[in-house]
Amino acid sequence: MGLDPMERVVKLASESAVVIFSVSSCCMCHAVKRLFCGMGVNQTVYELDQDPRGNDMERALMRLLGNSQAVPVVFIGGKLIGSMDRVMASHINGTLVPLLKEAGALWL
After folding, report:
1. One GO term of the cellular component aspect (predicted)?
2. Are 99 and 74 in contact (CB under 8 A)?
3. In 34-63, which positions are buried (b, 16+ CB within 10 angstroms) versus exposed (e)?
């Protein structure tokens, strides 16, 4: 018996230092993946449109975020950071790098 969608999201989010739930055709998803790639962060990406249970997981992510836009959703160190606006705000205000270092996703 498989996990319910919320349990699956939480399990997948805790398995790597940086986890991104994405849709392959989403430009904001692409931008957040490029941001982390440019920082030298090894990220685990789950493309929901390529997963048979992706729609259910996307609904679970919308419940977590409390809004209608489910992707991209970023977890760092197993903790929900949020979508693109939260990631960019953290990057701009200088809190993203310490989060990545604490999670072991960034060494320098």
Report:
1. cytoplasm
2. no
3. ebbeebebebebbbbeeeeebebbbebbee
If you compute the radius of gyration of the chain from its CA atoms, what whole number of angstroms results?
Answer: 13
CA distance 63 to 16: 22
* 84-93 helix and 27-38 helix, angle to the nearest 10 degrees: 30
Q: List the chain domain ranges.
A: 5-103
pLDDT in tens, 54-98: 999 999 999 988 876 779 999 999 999 999 999 999 999 999 999
CATH 3.40.50.2300 fits 5-103, yes or no: no
